[in-house]
Amino acid sequence: MKSLFSRQNQAVHRNTYRHSRLQPGLWIACLVTVLLTVVFSPASAWDPHAGVIPSYTWKATVTVSSGGNAHLVVDHDENTAWQSAAPLPQGFVGRKDQNFFLHASVAGWCKSSGDGSISPATDGNLNTSATISGKSTFWFEVGFPAQMVHSISLKWHSETQMEMYIFHTTGDSQRVAVLLPSDSYKWKRFPIGTTIKGVKLICRKTFRIFEISAITQPLKENVVLDLGAPKSISWVETRHWAGGKAKETELLASNDLITWTSLAKLNPAAHHRVTTYLPYPVKARYLKVEHTLEETDYAKVFIWEINAWDADGPYGPMPPPKRSGEPLQQLLGINAIWGWGFDRYAVNLAADSGPQKFSALFRHARNFHDMKWDVTDPDIIPDYAAMPVKGTQAMKWLNWDREYQAWKDAGLTIQASIQFTGKTFPQADWENPYRAAYNYGYAIARHFGPTAGNSLIEGIEIGNEPWDYAASFYREVLLGMARGIKEADPAIEVFPCALQSAFPYEERPQGGNFAGARLTEQAIPYIDGLNVHHYSYVQNEKGLRIGIFPEHPQSTLRAIFNDLRFRDANMPGKKIFVTEWGWDSAGAGEDCRHSECVSEQAQALYAVRGALFFIRLGVDRLFWYFFANGTGGLYSRCGLLGSKKTGFAEKQSFRALQALVLHSGRDYFLDVLREDDAAWVYLMGDSAGNPTHLIAWRPVSADDTNTNVIHLPFTSEAESVWLIDGQSAQGTLRNTLVHSDRPSKTMHITVAATPVIIHLKKSGHAPSPKKE
Question: What is the pTM of this model?
Fold first, then answer.
């Protein structure tokens, strides 16, 4: 099930171990291994980063206004940060961008009553001093072009009282401070807050000035990234924080380091990752994140990471549509568990419960098969043949044959996701990871496999989300278990645990889920494809992750694009299974309160639109998470049904998917007719490629009640039109939404957030769709 591990390489091939009881058929297993290696070996060089869309900033040259560790801004680690120096009380003194008086004497602005050098008074060094002598009066003055002066800071020594005057633009003077001998050698700041053209210090005796400084502009700290060449920038991610010490934070761009264009005002209090999606691309070579500080002592600001991409962001462009090789319903699956929530074998459930409830809708079921239910130690070889009499070694009452047979009898094919994590089986518990995994894989495939066993399991995942293991450890387990499964029964489809191909920096020594780190060339011959989990989220301006419609240009659902690129580069021809996807929602009398929740209606509409989105990409299987609501927080309201407390009442999403399957379950996805802000329109048809249906909708939030009328060049007419709204298992008949203009061969469709399925009239020849 869902792991709480957050979104976060080198292959190690161990000698093959074989337990003595697995020796029979060794020569056959070796032959199978050779054949698998020949048939399934990757055709091209292994590229662990094939799915990654690099940020423009990853190779940028970084400069900072102050502080050190500039490289931490682009080190792909959001746990490390650049920290500025503190401008106040003294940090600004040596900086020309912050201290207006720096080297004022060199500029000729300073004069005094004495004849000694006065340059130390504005040299930016608080340890050097200018002695101000005189005869009857003792004074030091700085005259400058009129400026709004925020404050003047001073370190001095005097044996008698000293006065500070400022000169207004009118020429009038004003005493602003009386400086006491007891404050000598202290660094004092005096607020001014008006436009002046000079400042003068007057004393009755010789005095010393260590430094006099002035702040005339808001104090700023920044990071500047040189991208090396102008880039088309549309998507910028920052993680920054001002610790409550900044007035504002701004994102800027430039091509010459002189003229800067403001791209966005950022929230200076944000401590989370902030995504800025520009309404139009900006061509720029330099990016700057700049904090404007409050004038308070010891104020420092931070930037953890800056990334930038074009309009497609870290996911890259939408792949071209891929015609499906199976009908829609054959692609759909459901996630479930032993007993389907009833705490008893599925064979004992009523005909409208458990697997039989879902078999008319889905063709596949994925079970969270906990390894700890089989064995108490990973090095123990499970004896599945003993289950009818003794149960498993770990659970004396458990007989997987009995449970899985009920699923199969209901018409569902079964994929077992073997669950193990560092919490259930710590790394130290595996005496020999490769051998233990091999033996377990061999035993389970030999018993449940389609050709070697009882044909109850057709697919096995080697882990669900075991992301708390080190990558090197998981690679051993993957290779051992995959090889054991294939050598016991090559007909079983084998998949690794759920991995992602977009974000390599989420792989850490202590764990992670990056495919490039956890898959190896050695394992590819023994696996049948890639296993991924994708949910549709964006982060809002408050830093909360929220559920969003599937077509949103920033939706995390688009990370499937990275997985497809990785698969195509490293595992061409192999499958890709989305084994978890869905939305948390209220419904069936149960609320949903966490930030990722969407409405019940939204879950229904997004389920249909999301399924079509994945199928259009050529995904081979889609397993909705989850069959019913559970208890707890995130993912506990993803169910198509309510929880057991509701009697597993149907949610709108269940009925919406029923309607989709009813109208188009036997159809194949053929092509995209339109995919823009106004509408998405997909063409469905039979196995011969003859169009049978159109499915159209607006790619907007379910809360958006607006409609568009689109004009689609199309030679066929509508026979009937159905809204797939989740209100019933059939949908709602709405023929008025479509009008076919025969003379112009144009179909006029009213589209909304709710998908509409258009049944096409049959004719003597196949209609030929035309794209706009």
Answer: 0.88
